[in-house]
Amino acid sequence: MKATFAEWTTRIVTRGLVFFTVFAIVLRPGTSRGSIAEQRSRLPPPAQCEDPVEGEWKAHQYNEVWHQWVIFRLVIHRKPGSPTELVGKVHNETWRGRKSDQEPGPCNEFVPYRTRASMPDAFGTYRDGHVVFEATTFQFDGLVCGKLPVGFGYRPDHFTGKLDEERQEFQSVNNDGGRAVNEPTLFRRVQCFDGPTRKLAVDITPPPFVPPERSDGC
């Protein structure tokens, strides 16, 4: 029995959706259990400040799928007159490179470009230990070196997470409406705005490259 045009169209669309879903799952960057520990090991000792949320917060992450390094710096202030609202800026430094190219430096055959950008209208909230910090506009501050790839672009970031006062960190996820979908991004406070910056002693030892074997054989 021959299928009608409508049935034929439905089959094509259904197969296409299945293919697209599988394709997206395969290509979507995975998050290993060690990713947060790796991000933590790259950050300087945390700053202990009087206010639980105000200050400068830093994240340093690597995307193995896109071979891209990113350093985020959040400049967070309380909004005057509000107990929960936040204002500030997001600074971004991005470069393409190998996993060994974790510090920003000059461009070369392995680091084809390095850029700086900012989101000057960042805003958010701090309620019951939960941080939301995002932006709606993006400002390209310049090409530090190299040459931008064709189609290079950026979407303003949206970070949400819970603050850990003991570590002076908040483990957020980033959703920018584009490539970043619940992307784990660990921020640590590195500077105070309300007084002298006091550094806390925490363990920032990098995790082992290969996880130790489990005794149960699994």
Offer a quick outline of the entry:
This protein is mainly β and 218 residues long. Helix content is 14%, strand content 39%.
Detail the topology: elements first, then pairings:
Layout: H1 5-27, H2 35-41, E1 47-48, E2 55-63, E3 68-78, E4 85-96, E5 113-127, E6 130-134, E7 139-146, E8 158-164, E9 169-174, E10 183-191, E11 198-199
Antiparallel strand pairs: 1-11, 2-3, 2-10, 3-4, 4-5, 5-6, 5-7, 6-8, 8-9, 9-10
Q: Unreliable runs, pLDDT <50, ≥5 residues?
A: 16-34, 206-218
Number of helices: 2
Q: Kindly report the average pLDDT value.
A: 81
| Overall helicity | 10-25%
Structural class category: mainly beta
Number of strands: 11
Shape: globular
Residue fraction in strands: 35-45%
Order of H and E elements: HHEEEEEEEEEEE
Task: Describe the largest sheet.
Answer: 8 strands, antiparallel, barrel
Order of strands across the biggest sheet?
2-3-4-5-6-8-9-10
Number of structurally distinct domains: 1
How big is the Rg?
A: 21 Å
Amino-to-carboxy terminus distance: 51 Å
Keywords:
single chain; 218 residues; mainly beta; disordered C terminus
Structure notes:
With 218 residues, this protein is mainly β. It has one domain (36-199). Helices cover 14% and strands 39% of the residues. It contains two helices and eleven strands, in the order H-H-E-E-E-E-E-E-E-E-E-E-E. The protein has helices spanning 5-27, 35-41, and strands spanning 47-48, 55-63, 68-78, 85-96, 113-127, 130-134, 139-146, 158-164, 169-174, 183-191, 198-199. The strands form two sheets. Strands 2-3-4-5-6-8-9-10 form an eight-stranded antiparallel barrel. A two-stranded antiparallel ribbon has the order 1-11. The longest helix has 23 residues, at 5-27. The model is unreliable at 16-34 and 206-218 (pLDDT under 50).
